[in-house]
Amino acid sequence: MEIMRLVVTGHVGAGKSTFIRSISEIEVVDTDCQATDQTALLKEKTTVAFDFGKLQFSPDMVLHLYGTPGHERFNFLWKILINKAHAYILLVSANRPEEFSSARRIADYMNRTVQIPMIIGLTHVDCPGAWSEENIAIALGYASKQTRPPIVTVSPNQSASVAQAIIALVQHYTQSSLPQEITV
């Protein structure tokens, strides 16, 4: 059986843990702790190491989903998780433009660390103040449509929406030139 490792990353409150919980076939392993900083204004708990979920993608392929913490002070964990990944999705809250620079720093960090396929998943697009896909792409540093990664809209609490995002990520991975070998 082949194992494909996918990382779900993004700024605090983008929906990473919810994304993994919505699709995992096992009880998600998480490292949630009581939020004590400005994060407490957004949510009660926050991830401090990683989330882990599993999804049987086909009879001979299983996906391992790793969610990163959103705080930059935990970037040493980003490196650990992304180094063994085959691809990743960057979740971005479309209604929180004050977090776009954080999302951009996360993507920059990941892209400097490894060269693997990635897509952008826009969350909270139905909330007041949500920016357009085009404006978010520009804010993240992807002004050129020819060189930007695929962008999908995803509702992290809806398993069908999460499944579509994962399918888009796997398709992007398989269409990328010379994909990494998937190992057991």
Descriptive overview:
Strand 7, helix 4 and strand 8 form a beta-alpha-beta unit. The strands form two sheets. A six-stranded mixed β-sheet has the order 4-5-1-6-7-8, sandwiched between helices. Strands 2-3 form a two-stranded antiparallel ribbon. The chain is 30% helix and 25% strand. With 184 residues, the chain is an alpha/beta fold. The protein has a single domain, classed as P-loop containing nucleotide triphosphate hydrolases (Rossmann fold), CATH 3.40.50. GO terms for molecular function: GTP binding; GTPase activity.
The ordered string of helix (H) and strand (E) elements is: EHEEEEHEHEHEH
Count of the separate structural domains: 1
Largest sheet composition: 6 strands, mixed
The backbone outline, from C-alpha atoms, is globular
Whole-number radius of gyration? 15 Å
Question: Any low-confidence stretches, pLDDT <50, length ≥5?
Answer: none
Mean pLDDT: 85
**Quaternary structure of the protein:** single chain
Strand content: 25-35%
How many strands appear in the DSSP assignment?
8
Task: List the strand order in the largest sheet.
Answer: 4-5-1-6-7-8
Estimated structural class: alpha/beta
Task: State the distance separating the first and last CA atoms.
Answer: 7 Å
Number of helical segments with 4 or more residues: 5
